[in-house]
Design a protein that fits this description.
Blueprint (H helix, E strand, L loop, with lengths): L7 H17 L4 H27 L3 H19 L5 H19 L1
């Protein structure tokens, strides 16, 4: 069975939820699930973002997208740290990759 299609609406809601949870309740089952979903989105978006970067003629824009992808991949490897900061970073990385990855 293939993974369900990504929904811009669902990803956007999860980004908003992550940022809200980071402010009030960054731990617990709900926050853990949002972190899991955001990591899944990042995993699915980072490859297309890297491919998009290769199409950019503007060197500065290309570097920005490439560095965003590098940072996102690093977030996927990092499982430790402050739960609130992690929610914020995953949410913001997902939001950025949404612009580049689909």
């Amino acid at each position: 069975m293939s993974a369900p299609a990504l929904s811009w609406v669902d990803m956007g809601r999860d980004v908003d939820l992550a940022l809200a949870l980071a402010e009030v309740r960054a731990t617990g089952p709900a926050a853990d699930e949002v972190r899991r979903r955001l990591r899944s989105y990042i995993g699915q978006l980072v490859g297309p973002a890297e491919a998009y970067a290769k199409t950019l003629l503007d060197a500065r824009a290309r570097v920005i997208v490439e560095q965003t992808a590098v940072h996102a991949r690093a977030l996927l490897r990092d499982q430790d740290g402050d739960p609130a900061a992690t929610l914020r970073l995953l949410g913001k990385a997902t939001y950025c990759l949404m612009r580049y990855g689909m």
